[in-house]
Amino acid sequence: MKKIKEEYLVRIDEIVKMHQDKPGPVKLMLHEVQKELGYIPFEAIEAISEATNRSAADIYGVVTFYSQFTTEPKGKHVIGVCLGTACYVNGSQTILELLSEMTGCPVNGTSSDGLFSIDATRCVGACGLAPVVSVDDTVFGCQKQLEELKMLVLNYIKEERVNG
Ligand code: FES
């Protein structure tokens, strides 16, 4: 198994200690590890298992149950395209293909340079905005904001691939 960075291990340890005595600590710890490292490495599962006296299989079960958690490192910018019914009938599949083409990132994968990940998601509960796309923490209702979305993605490409 590939070893993770020493600084990640230190951060995992801090996160576990910070939430250890709180009610429902597992989800809090996982949420924070996901937010800080961009994924849940096996070392975090082990540390959380030890701190909470639950088996690693149990913790892994929580990780795989919630779609917000991933055990694979994500790209710097994470794009989510909703393929729920309302979004799908409003053209989200076409937007998904467009974004995949623009970024060179496979659907449900990460671009080879680690700049983007694209996830096709189920309904995210914002059907009134369909078709819905999120980029990191920004949500776009693409019937009105498709151009804005495209500009944002193009800016990231320009900043990181052209100038970077
Ligand atoms: S179907 Fe896309 S937000 Fe509900």
What topology emerges from the helices and strands here?
Elements: H1 6-19, H2 25-37, H3 42-52, H4 56-65, E1 77-82, H5 85-89, H6 92-103, E2 109-110, E3 116-121, E4 132-135, E5 138-141, H7 142-162
Parallel strand pairs: 1-3
Antiparallel strand pairs: 1-4, 2-3, 4-5
Helix pairs in contact: 1-2, 1-3, 2-3, 3-4, 6-7
The structure holds FE2/S2 (inorganic) cluster.
FE2/S2 (inorganic) cluster binds near residues 84, 86 and 124.
Describe the model.
The chain folds into two domains: 6-65, no CATH class; 77-162, Glutaredoxin (3-Layer(aba) Sandwich). The two termini are 31 Å apart. A hairpin with a 2-residue loop joins strand 4 (132-135) and strand 5. The protein has seven helices and five strands. Strands 2-3-1-4-5 form a five-stranded mixed β-sheet, with helices on one face. It is an alpha+beta fold and 164 residues long. Helices cover 52% and strands 13% of the residues. The site of FE2/S2 (inorganic) cluster has 12 residues, from helix 5.
